[in-house]
Amino acid sequence: MFRRLFVPILLIIVALAGAVGWHGAAQMRTAQHDDMKEALRQEARLIHFLIKEDLGAGRAAEAHRRIRGLGTAAGRRVTLVATDGKVLADSEADPAMMEPHHRRPEIAQALATGEGISVRHSDTVGRDLMYYAWKLPEPEGGVLRISVPVAGLEEHYAALTRGLILFSGVALLAAAVVCFVVVRRQTAPVVELTRVAERIATGDLLVRSSVLESGEVGELAKSLNAMTDTLAARVEEERKSRAEIEALLAGMDEGVIAADLQQKILLYNKAAAGLLDFDGAGASGKLLWEVVREEAVIRAARESLASGDRKTFQVGPVRNRHLDVSVYPWPAAGPPEGVVIVAHDATESVRYQELRKEFVANVSHELRTPLTMIKGFVETLRDGASSDPVKGPEFLATIEKHVDQLTNLVSDLLELSRLESREGLPRRARVEVASTLTRVVEFMKPAAEKRRQSLELSVNGRLPGVAGDPDYLERAVSNLVDNAIKYTPEGGRIRVSAKAVGDEVVIEVADSGIGIPPEDVSRIFERFYRVDKSRSREMGGTGLGLSIVKHVVQVHGGTVDVESAVGKGTTFRVRLPAIVA
Ligand code: ADP
Questions:
Q1: Do you find a cis peptide bond into 329, omega within 30 degrees of 0?
Q2: pTM
Q3: For the segment 511-520, what is each residue's pLDDT rounded down to a tens digit?
Q4: Among 134, 296, 449, 473, which is most exposed with the fewest C-beta within 10 angstroms?
């Protein structure tokens, strides 16, 4: 900027100075010539005046002598030439030796016009001379010529030119300095503004111009600062709203991906990366198909962009997960500018549906068996067996057993559903585990005695309380003891114990029964799962007892596990968090 202004201005100054100097010098030279010519003319008039008399009186020799004398005195060469060109007198040479002069340019000119001038080399004096010729008025006639060496003139002229050049040089230098200072002053704010604008362009929105000039540049600086303020505010707003969106997206369980018209990813959240199984770092800016592996999602995005329609579908299982996916174009109105993909983890609901179906099938099956039996025995009784004194009561007893089984089943189902809906757990009281266990053992004792089993209770020291529902906890423990009695052969041993371990109360129900095969251990807490169906049914089991135990323990914040060896016995261990005093 500085150079672009300074250099042309300097060039203009140099050119102007050169032109003025050259023109001035030429003018001066002309003026000098004119002055010299005028001086020579005056001198010629003077000489003529002085020799006029001698010439008029015919005293030629006297006139010639006077010419020589005048020439020497004036430092000029003076020549008198006759009209025919013959040299009559010369102040520096012998006229007799000189050739006729009528062809000399100045003389020819004077003869023609009365006056002539010429600058040329004189062979007679061997120098460059300026000649001025004047045609003398009649009656004298002839031409009087005065000449002067040009050398002096040229020297004078050269001195003048040198002076002019020197003066121009100094003036030029001064002009250059002034020009430099002025241009620098004028361009400095513009240079500063350019620097500020460049920094803004690179994204530095904190920079401001310090130019305080008045006038256009100052206005420009003010506008630039105001513009940067607005821009910074906008960027900050943008950053905030993006941060808000990102925080919102980060807090969502749903996976969200927003892409533009070219399917380039603009935004996505961690949940999306997790659900659609892609690398959660650096997916922004990539194309959808480079990141998402689910063909159905990519296809839906493409179709949605093309048609502007919303698409909802289910994907899965992807890594054991089912997803509900919605793809819709944005903005809501107008031509699509991109798509938003929302993926929701539907695994739970899919699994729940499956469980529900399975449960209904299981329940129906469990109900059908005793109902079929009851119906069969009722028909047999109606067909005459009722009057049979032996079979009648026997069949009725069987019917009663199946009715009991149904009753057990229905009450277990009710219990489970209450536990699942959590309606059944309104109480959260302090439960003393020792007294709960005592009650259970007391209650189950007759059943154990019936099978000649020993049922022992051992509680180590004072137990801390447990927060929860005493009835449910009692129910869970009695289910375990009931199982121990059922799956332990006659004469076996059952031991119920409790102790405090750390912050927990650990209840154990151990038996010396038939045990559970290792492959079944992990499944016995499932609903309706039984190792030996007929044996369980024979014993009045529903296959729901352990499910109830697991639920009760879970809602109390505890865990239940089992250790078993086939033919040796089984130990169920329930851990419940103790109330920390
Ligand atoms: P059930 O009503 O059949 O007893 P549970 O849910 O209480 O149903 O138990 C599921 C299955 O686990 C039982 O059918 C039985 O096969 C096995 N089981 C439970 N407790 C014991 C135990 N103490 N010893 C051996 N097997 C057991």
A1: no
A2: 0.53
A3: 999 999 999 9
A4: 449
